[in-house]
Amino acid sequence: MDASLHPSALGVLVATPATLRGLLGGLPDDLVAAPGSEGWSPKDVVAHLLSLNGPTLVDRVRPMIEQNHPPIPSVDEHAVLERSGLRALTPDALLDEFARQREDAVAWLR
Q: CB neighbours (10 Å) of residue 16?
């Protein structure tokens, strides 16, 4: 079984923290924390991505790499986000932590 990750997928994973920082980093915190019409703010989206880093990127991808036909665990993404406490962090702290965790995840994937 070829368990390699397509280079373009790895490129997206690598680029996402800088892309998010470029979009949100210079904006006032209150603007980044303001929810849109669907109820989520840009800050919520970053917290969501960060809260699911372990349960999805690692816990779902590892079995895909190690097994031919792995079961993919279900994740209650809203519950994970609520339990994480990440919404209490500042946008900059979220972006910093997301970049750090993504760097670790990409190193693991490579």
A: 15
